[in-house]
Amino acid sequence: MKILFVAPPLPIANSYAQPLGFAYMGSILRNEGFTNIRILDACSLDLSIKDTIQLACEFEPDVVGITVMTVTVNNGLKIACGLKALLPKVKIVFGGVHASVLPEDLLNNTFVDIVVRNEGEYTFLEVVQRLVSGEDLEDIKGTTLNINGEIINNPNRSRIIDLDSLPFPSRDLLPLNEYKERAQKAAAILRREELDALIVNGNEADYANTRYFSGFWPLFERCGVAVGANGDGGEGNLPIGNRPEDC
Q1: Do residues 8 and 40 touch, judged by C-beta distance below 8 A?
Q2: Contacts 24+ apart (CB under 8 A), 144-148
Q3: pLDDT category of residue 195 using cuts at 50, 70 and 90
Q4: Is the pLDDT at 22 greater than 50, yes or no?
Q5: Which CATH number does 3-173 carry?
Q6: Is 90:109 a contact under the CB 8 Å cutoff?
């Protein structure tokens, strides 16, 4: 069983945060004997949708897990659509914040097989285990499916209370050099600006040394972090484009 996790690129500028959720799921899958796993962090690698699809297809996965926020959902759907067209037998699983809040929005697309809601570590594991054994996917807790045109929301899976029970994330699956390079650039900028830390909340930013720095959007751009569509620190949402009905 080949398992691929994909973090889609943002529409206009990318973030370089590690998708640790995938790394945790990688560890849990490895503990259960699934070792052929890859994480494709298209966001941090600045990959286009086309390049993401190409690299994913080269791996020839049996199941693909795609995490989406609202700002990345359209790119995620385009990637899923392209993969399904080139690899018809691949199982497409969506997760993440947008998928947890609006699973029906994703399952209206026929190339999406199942949605994992909320914490995905053990839900995704059960999906993979059932795919291997050939069991039905219909009653897995924490999932939503489209069965013959009817959206089925299975009961939520219990939260993971004891976080210490989780294995350490498989960071070896991540492009660690990319994160290191960006962190070094951000640290250099903070030193130059004589700042102790950056705290961001919505459209405003403050720093731990209590100085307010209104030019934090250009600061973000120099760090390689995604910014608003207007890029000037004012209000404005990232455009998410049109729904990819026909890829």
Answers
A1: no
A2: 144/103, 144/104, 144/107, 144/114, 144/115, 144/117, 145/107, 145/113, 145/114, 145/115, 146/107, 146/108, 146/112
A3: low
A4: yes
A5: 3.40.50.280
A6: no
Phi, psi (degrees; rounded to nearest 5) at 129: -60, -40
User: Measuring CA to CA, which residue among 24, 54, 43, 214 is closest to residue 123?
Assistant: 24
Q: What is the pLDDT confidence band of residue 192, given thresholds at 50, 70 and 90?
A: confident
Domain boundaries, the chain: 3-173
Mean pLDDT of 116-122: 95
Give the rounded distance of the alpha carbon of 15 from its chain centre.
11
Q: Where are the alpha helices (DSSP H) in the chain?
A: 20-31, 49-59, 73-86, 97-101, 103-107, 121-133, 176-192, 216-223
